[in-house]
């Protein structure tokens, strides 16, 4: 099952949305079969609307590619004007001048070279590259990004959200097909269903209890290039980040959910609290 066709008509402002609208007009009814404009995104998602997730950032590798899309490395989230949350495996071993943080809905195709806007990279001290434990990092920007809505990391109890039947929002510029390497320029969004830890451990026996959140189903998932991006819920106070995209076996395959680093887990929460409040 795929979701997301539902709101396709609302994307009147984007190019692809215009073609979706035209396609719907021509066919007269919402079609069930995928067409080039509604085929799988993130995996199974749709274009985000401009301004829908203002806190979403692209972590760019400055040494590669000739466009923002080519330089896109990972997702990241603005959690305050000067701090950006991402995955440890996205930045481990890298130096601030090699990377830049780009905030925006569309990744441009202009060859413009950018310079780094990163002051410091803080990888979780107990990040384990072998089994991706504590797969979170914080990036401190040289200059604050003011006037942009931020997303709040969930550092308190998240258990109310971790129930069968819940779904989270996951967004990113990662590949939209698995297997495949089709990459979008417009941010993709999808609702990904929660998968209980017990079920998730059947897929991945080595999983450490409490340290991750699993989500996804056949045809719906994050994928390569989405890492570091947020797993979100919308609360009265605004968007809240429960986890960061970390890994999975393949993408969107049956019974192999996506795995997200859980922010409220003790070591991760402590790391975010102590690092982020520094200036
Ligand atoms: N490790 C990937 C990245 O660096 C993210 C993979 C997520 N996989 C998944 N099935 N949800 O972008």
UniProtKB/TrEMBL annotation:
<dbReference type="Pfam" id="PF00089">
    <property type="entry name" value="Trypsin"/>
</dbReference>
<dbReference type="InterPro" id="IPR033116">
    <property type="entry name" value="TRYPSIN_SER"/>
</dbReference>
<keyword id="KW-1015">Disulfide bond</keyword>
<dbReference type="GO" id="GO:0006508">
    <property type="term" value="P:proteolysis"/>
</dbReference>
<feature type="signal peptide">
    <location>
        <begin position="1"/>
        <end position="32"/>
    </location>
</feature>
<dbReference type="GO" id="GO:0008233">
    <property type="term" value="F:peptidase activity"/>
</dbReference>
<dbReference type="InterPro" id="IPR001314">
    <property type="entry name" value="Peptidase_S1A"/>
</dbReference>
<dbReference type="InterPro" id="IPR043504">
    <property type="entry name" value="Peptidase_S1_PA_chymotrypsin"/>
</dbReference>
<dbReference type="InterPro" id="IPR001254">
    <property type="entry name" value="Trypsin_dom"/>
</dbReference>
<dbReference type="InterPro" id="IPR018114">
    <property type="entry name" value="TRYPSIN_HIS"/>
</dbReference>
<feature type="domain" description="Peptidase S1">
    <location>
        <begin position="42"/>
        <end position="279"/>
    </location>
</feature>
<dbReference type="InterPro" id="IPR009003">
    <property type="entry name" value="Peptidase_S1_PA"/>
</dbReference>
<keyword id="KW-0720">Serine protease</keyword>
<keyword id="KW-0645">Protease</keyword>
<keyword id="KW-0378">Hydrolase</keyword>
<protein>
    <submittedName>
        <fullName>Serine protease</fullName>
    </submittedName>
</protein>
<keyword id="KW-0732">Signal</keyword>
């Amino acid at each position: 099952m795929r979701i997301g066709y539902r709101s396709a008509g609302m994307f009147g402002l984007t190019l692809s949305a215009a073609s979706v609208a035209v396609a719907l007009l021509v066919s007269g009814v919402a079609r069930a079969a995928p067409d080039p404009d509604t085929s799988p995104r993130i995996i199974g998602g749709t274009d985000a609307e401009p301004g829908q997730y203002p806190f979403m950032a692209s972590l760019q590798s400055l040494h590669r590619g000739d466009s923002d899309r080519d330089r896109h490395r990972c997702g990241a989230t603005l959690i305050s004007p000067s701090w950006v949350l991402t995955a440890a495996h996205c930045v481990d071993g890298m130096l601030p001048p090699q990377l830049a943080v780009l905030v925006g809905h569309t990744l441009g195709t202009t060859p413009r070279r950018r310079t780094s806007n990163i002051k410091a990279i803080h990888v979780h001290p107990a990040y384990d590259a072998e089994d991706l434990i504590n797969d979170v990092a914080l990036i401190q920007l040289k200059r604050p990004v003011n006037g942009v809505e931020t997303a709040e990391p969930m550092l308190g109890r998240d258990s109310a959200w971790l129930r069968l039947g819940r779904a989270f929002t996951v967004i990113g510029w990662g590949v939209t097909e698995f297997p495949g390497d089709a990459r979008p320029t417009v941010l993709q969004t999808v609702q990904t269903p929660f998968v209980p830890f017990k079920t998730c451990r059947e897929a991945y026996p080595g999983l450490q209890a409490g340290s991750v959140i699993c989500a996804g189903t056949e045809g719906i998932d994050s994928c390569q290039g989405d890492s570091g991006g947020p797993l979100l819920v919308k609360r009265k106070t605004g968007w809240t980040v429960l986890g960061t995209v970390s890994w999975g076996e393949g993408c969107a395959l049956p019974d192999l959910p996506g795995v997200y680093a859980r922010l409220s887990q003790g070591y991760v929460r402590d790391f975010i609290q102590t690092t982020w409040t520094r200036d």
